[in-house]
Design brief:
- This protein is mainly alpha-helical.
- It contains 6 helices and 2 strands, in the order βααβαααα.
- The protein folds into 2 domains: about 35 residues, 2-Layer Sandwich (GMP Synthetase, Chain A, domain 3), CATH 3.30.300.20; about 70 residues.
């Protein structure tokens, strides 16, 4: 908040950016009038970077744990399989649908997860 210049900087997630601005800027304009300050709305780049960092860590971990290509790991993480514990309810068909129908690869992944999680 910059009281000298009557200006407020608001950072929001990318998902909330359109809501904060509103159709044709109406939410931002109305808020600005109500509070008597110019409202500057920006996307929160830090949150996006933190999220991407977490995704990259999960991709690296899944790729290493399962000894698979990072692109395959990225697909799995993108579908919510970001930790080996998330694979518990996934079967070969579920995994195959994520890895472009490759049932052989899907079976290898399921077998590796089972071996790791059973302590073998």
């Amino acid at each position: 908040m910059d009281e000298d210049h009557k200006r407020v900087l608001l950072t929001v997630s990318e998902e909330e950016l359109s809501k904060a601005i509103g159709r044709k800027g109406q939410n931002a304009r109305l808020t600005s009038r109500l509070i008597g300050y110019d409202l500057v709305i920006e996307k929160d780049e830090h949150a996006a970077k933190v999220f991407e960092s977490h995704v990259e860590e999960a991709v690296h971990r899944i790729a290493a744990d399962l000894d698979i290509d990072r692109n395959i790991a990225r697909k799995l993480v993108g579908e919510g399989l970001s930790d080996l514990s998330n694979f518990a309810d996934a079967d070969v068909d579920d995994i195959a649908s994520i890895v472009d129908g490759d049932t052989e690869l899907a079976q290898q992944i399921v077998d590796k997860v089972a071996a790791i999680t059973s302590g073998s």
